[in-house]
Amino acid sequence: MSEAPLQRRPRRPFDWSTAFIAVAVVGSAIVVYRRDGQARFLEILSSDFILFLDILPKVLAACLIAAFVAVLMPRETVLRWVGAESGLLGLIIATIAGAICPGGPITIFPVAAAFITIGADVGAAIAFMTSWTLLGYSRALVWELPFFGPEFVIWRSIAALPLPIIAGLLGRFVATLIVDRKDSSR
What we know:
By secondary structure, the chain is mostly helical. It has 2 domains: 49 residues; 113 residues, no CATH class. The protein contains 9 helices and no strands. Helix 1 runs antiparallel to helix 2, helix 4 runs parallel beside helix 6 and helix 6 runs antiparallel to helix 9.
């Protein structure tokens, strides 16, 4: 017997965040065009188009990785370890996963979305992303250690260690408030 396909929350292709970014882009384009002229405007537009073409394959690959993660990870395992009922242990696991997960935001955001799709709760996803941001080993090894030395990296990591768990707990609390508010309005 095959599993039911993963259910995704329906999303509109154009929402308030897209509208905000579109207004900011158009406004900035107008200011640059009027202030710096057509030549500078076209120079920026062409360099941004090249950047878009450079990033597009990476975004597509990251989305494919996230889709494969969503299919390959057993839903029951995800629910047990980082689901809504996982408690503090789920936040700790998500924090460890975020700290050891390599890659940039192009990879991490789709993976976090895939985790939510297959059953991780909001708090675990927040702990995962916060941990990746604050405790990510690749950034510490490549940037912090050579520039600041081991003592700085150790103390910064110790200071940042509880933050993903606190952020995950706050995320769970806010998500519960939102769900309770929606339930009471029905």
